[in-house]
Design goal:
Blueprint (H helix, E strand, L loop, with lengths): L21 E5 L18 H20 L3 E10 L24 H20 L4 E7 L5 H14 L6 E4 L6 E5 L2 E5 L9 H6 L5 H6 L2 E5 L12
Helix pairs in contact: 1-2, 2-3
């Protein structure tokens, strides 16, 4: 990390507009599978990194056109990486076709999230990075979150929740948001958070409650 030099990202420090309301924002890009080899798509890892940054920048730009941003909650992992080990397999050992080996995917991924976090913190008062480990990258994503937290250790505006628990939670305003990768029976998640030793009180105290997942590779919303 002492010799690591991130790619330069043009980030204008945005000042609050007195005419706009202040909001907290979640930027969640789950199931990115950085090094996944695809048949009908681009297998250039740098093109994928550029696409990720484009989405992050567009989402923030759209919010900032209407609101000032206080805090950005940024869940990472959720199968951000496609593999978890040097055998190019998932955490459970399922082999995967990749466009980069274990180490190359990790280094590209670290570089990409440094770019993303630098951009986010230039557009908000604070950035809260939350580790949500996936079934493809449970081990490697923990290393990633640890390294990022060390890299930003002296930055008072970037916070990390990188515990190894597979469930996380945060309260934004009067809304509780629970996080789980979603490789489980989804109908069980509301009760899990409602009775959780760390998040049960926050779940109960909130006016609104949501659980955000990944894993399924399609959009789905369900009210319980």
């Amino acid at each position: 990390l002492q010799n690591y030099k991130p790619q330069h990202v043009v980030c204008d420090i945005v000042q609050h507009d007195a005419d706009k309301k202040i909001v907290a924002v979640e930027i969640s890009l789950s199931d990115f599978h950085l090094a996944k080899k695809v048949i009908d798509g681009n297998n250039d890892i740098n093109v994928r990194k550029a696409a990720y940054m484009h989405v992050v920048q567009e989402l923030v730009k759209n919010v900032r056109s209407v609101y000032n941003i206080d805090t950005i909650v940024f869940p990472i992992s959720n199968d951000f990486f496609h593999t978890d080990n040097y055998q190019n397999s998932t955490t459970a050992g399922t082999p995967q076709d990749t466009i980069a080996d274990y180490a190359e995917e990790y280094e590209h991924g670290f570089d990409l999230l440094v770019q993303a976090i630098d951009f986010l913190k230039s557009n908000a008062d604070a950035v809260e990075v939350i580790l949500v480990q996936g079934n493809h990258d449970r081990t490697k994503s923990y290393y990633l979150a640890h390294a990022l937290s060390v890299y930003y250790a002296n930055d008072e505006d970037v916070y990390f929740d990188r515990t190894t628990s597979l469930v996380k939670g945060v309260t934004l305003g009067n809304t509780f948001i629970g996080y789980h990768h979603g490789n489980c029976k989804l109908d069980d998640l509301p009760l899990l958070f409602a009775t959780h030793k760390d998040y049960g009180y926050k779940f109960g105290a909130a006016v609104y409650r949501e659980v955000h997942t990944g894993d399924k590779h399609h959009y789905m919303a369900k009210e319980v």
